[in-house]
Design goal:
255 residues; alpha/beta; six-stranded mixed β-sheet; three-stranded parallel β-sheet; 11 helices; 9 strands
Length: 255
């Protein structure tokens, strides 16, 4: 448990809740990325699953994105590509899953966490769930999550996030841009909304929802290839001395 986990549970209504946790602000090392992608894929293939709620543990951070410890440990471009492909696999699992995925955003989203929020079919957030695409600040770039973020909030807002990589945008900004579907001032109200929507969707026509999801995600059929091509770019950049130095500085700040 100390190294984090991914677990899922399906209730009697067919609401499959997938939960992930990591002690470092719910960051995602390669193992958790793989488990998360496999869990989403498995839920999508389970006839008992009518709708998915994706959430993390804790209050301050929804997801801090990539694990800095693993980024520093990458020694070859192949290792880098493999690591960033983990995010590609999660986003593609969310995209191709036939059920709607509601994502519960209770805290801050950084980097890959913003990508997961963007890949949600419906994101319900709490005030204080600020967002930041910090990749350029550590010498990389939001290449893998970029298509998901751009699809959800548009190219102009995506550029703003990607270029000013050290600036937090608040949850209200994220809602205005379309990243968050709903925004609440209390955890109770947020969870009540999630419960209401997931219950309603669990009792809706699954075939209709699957066709609607295909409609909403039209134009993304090339993402299996595209996101892995983007992972190659990130896998190469993470080896640069600039990136190495930037990551070490970030790790020092955290400590």
């Amino acid at each position: 448990m100390s190294a984090g986990y991914v677990k899922s549970h399906t209730d009697l209504n067919g609401v499959n809740t997938i939960e992930f946790y990591h002690p470092q602000s719910n960051s995602l090392p390669a193992r958790l990325l793989e488990e998360l992608a496999q869990t989403i894929h498995g839920a999508g293939n389970d006839e008992d699953t009518k709708v998915i709620v994706l959430r993390s543990v804790g209050e301050k951070a929804f997801c801090a994105g990539a694990s800095f410890d693993e980024l520093v440990a990458i020694k070859t471009q192949e290792e880098g590509t493999q690591f960033f492909s983990g995010f590609a696999n999660v986003l593609n699992a969310m995209r191709t899953c036939p059920q709607f995925i509601i994502v519960r955003i209770q805290g801050k989203c950084v980097g890959g966490g913003v990508g997961i929020a963007a890949a949600a079919d419906y994101a319900i957030a709490l005030e204080g769930a600020d967002i930041k695409l910090s990749e350029l600040a550590v010498g990389i770039g939001p290449f893998v999550v970029g298509p998901a973020v751009e699809r959800k909030i548009g190219i102009a807002a995506f550029e703003n996030l990607a270029i000013d990589a050290t600036m937090w945008r608040n949850a209200e900004w994220a809602k205005k841009k379309g990243l968050f579907s709903e925004l609440y001032t209390s955890v109770e109200d947020m969870d009540e909304s999630i419960q209401r929507l997931s219950y309603n969707l669990a009792h809706s026509n699954p075939q209709a929802m699957a066709e609607m999801k295909k409609m909403f995600w039209r134009g993304t059929e090339n993402w299996d290839t595209l996101l892995h091509q983007r992972a190659v770019i990130s896998g190469k950049l993470v080896l640069s001395q600039h990136t190495r130095s930037a990551i070490e500085k970030f790790k020092a700040k955290v400590k």
